[in-house]
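subagent[fold] <- orchestrator: predict structure for attached chain, return tokens only, no commentary.
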Amino acid sequence: MMKQAIILAGGRGTRLAERLGDLPKPMIPIGGKPLLEHQVELLRAHGFNEIIMFVHHRAELIQAYFAEREDLGMRIRFVIETQPLGTAGAVMAGGDHLAETFLVLYGDTMLNVDLSRIWAVHERSGAEATLFLHPNNHPFDSDLVEVDSNDRVIAFHHRPHSDDRFFQNLVNAGLYVMNKSMLIPLLGAGLPSEASDLPLQFRNSGANAYPGQAIDFGRDVFPSALGAGKHLNGYNSPEFIKDIGTPSRYDWVCGQFATGIVQRSSFRTPQRAAFLDRDGTIIREVNRQGLTSIDDVELIPGAATAIRTLNNAGIRVVLITNQPVVAKGLVTVSQLANVHNKLETLLGREHAFLDRIYICPHHPDSGFEGEVPALKCKCSCRKPNTGLIDRAVRDLNIDCRESWLVGDTTTDIQTAHNAGLRSILVKTGYGGSDARYPAKPIFVRADLLEAVKLILSLNPS
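subagent[fold] -> orchestrator:
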């Protein structure tokens, strides 16, 4: 069976000119090997057997390099763009050469992603395109994607973002699995320019829909598809995928590769994680009733630095929190989502991010005015039960033996004990004064930042 990938490798790399010398941007070295070769080897490892590369600047150098790599065991074809078509324009220029389902990746991104997994998710979803989404450390100047509880894309929020609006930290990373059928109706007015040697199946004799400009997936195609009622699926993953478009980004990626963080990031590798409680650990404890107003979301000093430190170390940061305020009718699911959107925004402003947020909305006892009967139950996800952790382990392939739980209550410590996690009690929030459970923490630290320093001292790599 043919499994096809498209690599958009036409970039010139103007901002990287001093690092590139005479090389085209996709051939910049990382770990002693061209970036593009890392991509091709990843595709081969996940069963892809055909690649179409769209090339432009110094195309002959890229072609010559891969002509000498017969050991790759893949069919690689090249399309030389006479002028840049844009990310979507190049793919749509592929015409009859596109498979019914194919993967698209950008030639200026270093990645280590379980491509087999996103491919399988796309096939199960029934979507016409699946977008690889991830949290990043600068959501304030990124285009953000909003998904519903079933991972269906429902909105695109382009930068700049208003200071008084809060969105989930989910960024389009430039990796897609899509069906060829999705593209056909979107090009009723044709392409702005031509590729050199592939037929333009989708070209129309009418006026250009995007006169004088290239066509971009994020800016043009996906918003148009969403507006036309197409099913776009969001695939949320913390696996490594970063562009190398500036000297600082390139240096950072090289550093992450040198320390092994890139190599360990794929879901094929069991992940280390720090499970964090919310109130009293990351944000200030408000009262025993629970946080009910978005205005009360305030980071504990040092919390963002702690989370950013975990991010940079390649340790997954997973928020797990009991939120009985939902079952009690004090906040709605939508209001709670806005609270977490603000939390992610505040962290993002300090270049930190959460890989996942898991909540338990249940409460076992009835008798509250305005309560939600369907959520008044005993459940497996309410801490100290391990349901939230179990979900994270499945979703992120987490190795509990190498992971931690940090919280401010004995409930958190008992949860860690029940899940086989190492525990740290912080003195912020309740500082263990709830005394509800008998489990004792392995360590006690002043706050989250001190807890993270301890984690890294005991797990340096």
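orchestrator: received. Logging for downstream: The chain is about 30% helix and 20% strand. The two ends are 39 Å apart (CA to CA).
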